[in-house]
Amino acid sequence: MKHLPTRFEKNDILRIVRALAIFRPSLIALQMPMTDEDEVFVEKCFQRSLLELEKLISYSGTPTVVWRRTGEICLVAPEFCMLTEWPMDELIGKRKYIYELFENQSVVEYWESFASHAFENTTKSIYSHCILLKPSGAPIPATFCFSIRRDIFDLPSIVIGQWLPLL
């Protein structure tokens, strides 16, 4: 949230904040009864899921990224690094967020899509267009889909995104 005023126009900031306001009350309501032990258990489950996804991603050959509901990147397929020219060590372990790799309009549209699907049970995958940014700032037009997985408390936990460049 700290980088919003430096990167976005006021109208885009309002759209992002509105999107966050859609799912925030549900998120808070579901997190309130959780104990510290519950949170530790959820994190252990999250880490276990990452191990399973890492194996699955290694078989797919598709530009894939896994991130938390906050946008923090947790897992990156080598194909995504090839597509975007981002070094793997820049994306993992340095608290990089998926929306930092999108151009502004794509960030706004991502948060609006995430907000509308975060707590609904009808949609398995969300399909969209976006513009990824290389480290140099050069744009990469792409289509992508993302799926939101929930934890045992029905909170959005893991987001799995896959991209295909538009040639």
TrEMBL record:
**SUPFAM superfamilies membership:** PYP-like sensor domain (PAS domain)
Instruction: Give every ERT1/acuK family PAS domain span.
Output: 62-136, 138-165
Q: Name one GO biological process term.
A: cellular response to starvation
Where on the tree of life does the source sit, at the highest rank? Eukaryota
Recite the UniProt keywords alphabetically. Answer: DNA-binding, Metal-binding, Nucleus, Transcription, Transcription regulation, Zinc
Q: Which residues form the signal peptide?
A: none
User: Keyword Transcription regulation on this protein?
Assistant: yes
Mind telling me which GO cellular component terms the entry cites? nucleus
Query: Entry's Gene3D superfamilies?
Result: PAS domain (3.30.450.20)
Is rRNA-binding there in the keyword field?
Answer: no
Localization recorded for this chain is: Nucleus
Name of this protein: ERT1/acuK family PAS domain-containing protein
Q: Which organism is it from?
A: Paxillus rubicundulus Ve08.2h10
